[in-house]
Amino acid sequence: MSTNKITKQKPRTLVLNGNPGKSSLCKVLAEAAYEEAQASGKEVRILHLSQMSFDPDLTEGFEGKQQLEPDLKAAQDVISWCDELIIVHPLWWGSAPAKLKGLFDRILLPGFAFRYNDGAEYPEKLLTGKTASVLITSDTPGWYLSLVYGNGWTKTLKKQILQFCGFGKIQIKIIGPIRSSTPDQRAQMILMARKLAA
Question: Which of the chain's ends, N or C, has fewer CB atoms near its CB within 10 Å?
Answer without folding.
Answer: N
